[in-house]
Amino acid sequence: MKAALLSLLLASLASLASLASLASATGVAPLFDSDEILTPKRLIAAPRPGIARANPSGDAAIIGARTYSFEGDSFDSVLYHLDLKDPGKERVIVTRNASDAFWLSDTHVAFVRSSDNRLVVHDLAQDDGGKEPVEGATFPAPIDTIQVARHEDRLTLVFSAQVYGDGDLYKVKEHDDSQAVAQWKRVKVFDDVMIRHWDTWLYPGKRSQLFAVDLDPAADGWSFKGEIRNLLKGTALESPVPPFGDEGDYDVNGTHAVWTARDPSVHAAWHTKQNIYLAPLDGTAAPTELTHGKHGATSSPRFSQDGQKIVWLQMDIDGFESDRRKIAIYEADKTLHLEGQDLSKKPFWDLSPTTVSFSPDGKSLLGIVENKEQDVIYRLDLGQQNIRPDFVTKKGGAASFEALADGSLLVTASSIRGPSEAWLLRNGNDQFENSLGAQHGEAIKLTDFAEEGGLSKLDLGPEPEQFSYPGSRGRDAHGWIIKPPGYDVKKAYPLAVLIHGGPEGSWANSWSTRWNPLVFAAQGFFVITLDPAGSTGFGQAYQEEILNHWGSTPFEDIRLGTKHILKRFSETLDSDRVVAAGASYGGYMINWINGHNEDGLFKGLVCHDGVFSTLSTWYSTDELYFPEHEFGGVPWENDHGYQRFSPERFVSQWHTPQLIVAGGQDFRLPETEGISAFNALKRRGVDARLVYFPDENHWVRMPKNSLKWHEEVLGWLIKYSSAKEVETPLFVNQGRVP
């Protein structure tokens, strides 16, 4: 037995040596074999910052970060205090027990302890780093999001929590422990769809709702004053809207809450319509609907500082989740101004903002919008005759911002080359350009998580480069170039083509802990991330080219982009070593490529949670409105729309080796899509490998699973982009090196 193990170990070491010698000749680095590059393990263990939050006066902020430890198989959480009056002052650690917190006052920071749902309050005015926090009131059930409303001397917590059909927060535990729920967990019975969403089976009648409770900041602890009030009680409304709703789905002023929720009169499985609702925090009146008529989803409702106006984003088309978001303003006199009607005579841009809010003086709007692969902050001056956007930042991945009373902006933003950092953008007349591309004033970096995580010491390769190229339909298509560390024009590199999901999405200039192109480049690949037809940030017309054309226009853009790069870098790239990988729609495209790879352009493929059959996907997915809009109706009325671009129809032409990733908790594209593709490949005699994660959803998020995902995906791409047949150590003993 020992001799067999020794033989296997020697074979593994020989394989490692063979791969290392291959690296110098081919430009492929040994898998995870350097202290100077961004390895998967370093990516997973890097700090994961939250968003910076300013206190009411705007002179201080907090930001948290989580860091994973492989040794302890756990996340460490740290919350930092930032001095905005003196930004150069060293940060202070508030607590190592939480990374997500909120301000109760200018000096009091709180979080809700998940183990017992208890409010924990830190007094920063007295805390010298050793003072124990005060334990306050206990919530009767777990809460998900929270905001603070301030009015005169009253402090009100507005939060969301999951409740059953009675809407009673105090009875949640009773329901959880009931025989009815226990039996439902064993045997689920449904009379209507949707029965599950994203990665969760839906208990009938259970939903997220908003609650309010007044808080008493007494000297002996922070306690609740009076009963907790359900602001949505007696309705079928749900907010935040699952599966990705968060505190951005609602807002509070001193006396009211405003929120977005699905229209309860239409079916959520095949409608996207969401309405805006308003209700008093004291619970004395039922919610009032502010929207009216036919429309699609709404998002980002926000009060003006004086409480006299509300702004939100609204789509026109019910059932189209990627319709352009328009700005709507509601005034106290019940006048509704909608972009393209009253705000201006015609739309002032062809972009779709993701957030919107009022400036502190109410004279302009601020928000985040995706513009040509950059998530930037925009400003709209409401006093202009013809409204035109002014971009406060021009590059980077803005995740959030707060407009402070002095005109400054507290910004949280990342980039391809680093995780989120907190910035203070101050007004001024100096012209400059920093990593956010801000054009006026002073930009002060408040944190350096990249340095703390050891990322700044790594060789991340040359700066990523945006490029455009002649695409299909006679217009340009777009993408990024990410070159490997130590890039040398005299070497021959393999090309890795990464394809995003959505399909209405893009490769933005932001950090990712999942599909990070720097990690692929660190393994010796010349990487391109392509934004073909259907991608966001280039105008609605470009985005909608994909509708009813999943396998045509975007596919042409991807092939044209790949060939463009091969020609442009012909002295550096080896056209015989091109591989591609994608997830979700990107996984669909991988399956489509395999049936249309007649010229052998791609030598190896990776499909993560991709569509195998567009027809079967309608019958198994959670959100039916998505395929119905993408493919033009329901299958029994438009069979051609579904079959036309279904990868399943072209299995007879599959011949390219392919790795397939599937998740057991993926209810968006169930595991059977991956198993079907795997069966087809193996039955045809094509080299294939199935990597199945029973506990993962559409994404692989658990750290150790993520490490395995990177090993499998990168190993497969390396295997099929090598200059000659070399078995990497990754494939010894089914992926385990003794």
TrEMBL record:
Keywords: Hydrolase, Protease, Signal
GO biological process entries: proteolysis
Pfam family, one: Peptidase_S9
Name of this protein: Dipeptidyl-peptidase V
All copies of domain Peptidase S9 prolyl oligopeptidase catalytic, residue ranges: 511-721
GO molecular function: serine-type endopeptidase activity
This protein's record includes keyword Hydrolase: yes
